[in-house]
Predict the structure.
Amino acid sequence: MIKDTELIGIKEIISLLRLQKHDFLNHLQVVAGFLQLNKQAMAREYLMDTIAQIQQEGNALRIQSPELVGVLYLYKTKCEQLGMTVNIEVADEMLEWGEKGKIIAKFLKEMLEMLFLQVTHRKVSLNISFVRGEKEEKICKIVLAMLELEQAEYNNMEKIKAFIDEESAAYYKQIENMWIIEFIIE
């Protein structure tokens, strides 16, 4: 079992900061390239898209659980390095988690770690959202879409299903190549 102190370490934080710096410099180089080519409209459009993306990601940073924020950004970065598309959505009323943030962080870390070990196909889209359910319960909803999934990868998902089955508050459903995993918090 993962200990609280092992959720995200100093090395991972430094790695995230390096990647963030690298991404920031890449954005500046793209804008500089557009400006050098005298394509101000493209530079402006690129800047607006980048600003919107950073603002959306910034909302997840407002979650009141450092463990959860750390795990979300660590795995978002890992996924993106592998060419996966990742989206994190957090409704404003879903920012307060208290001790349950650690529980969600542990669940996500274990599940996403298994995903990296089991799914070698990189045409994967991962959407993690924190929403209210029909009964106003807090839910961490994970939608994992795998395009052109190979049979071996499909079979490897059985390990993730077994992990989810062990979690009493989690359930999943599969629709073709899409997995919907919901972890009910309250």
